[in-house]
Amino acid sequence: YSGIECHLSYLFNVTILHVEYRLSPEHPLPAAVDDIVALYCALLRDKFSPSQMMIIDDLAGGGLSLLTVQALLAHQLPVPRGVIVISP
Predict the structure, then answer these.
(1) Cβ neighbour number for residue 15 with a 10 Å cutoff
(2) pTM for this one?
């Protein structure tokens, strides 16, 4: 996805982070969700505003995006401005 990520970053003048999370079957759920939540919390600690963040993913990653938002809500953390999932 690096090509499209670079294009979108340039086109919209935004920073894009590509998250490499642990994969199953070696690391079953919720390992991947935990990885994404940990990165999100690190961004919050570094003073990134949730209103300026979005989670975007497709296929199985789209499902992980939705699980991530559920985890954020369960931990009473602020959620990102939006979530875009394609064919979760």
Answers:
(1) 9
(2) 0.87
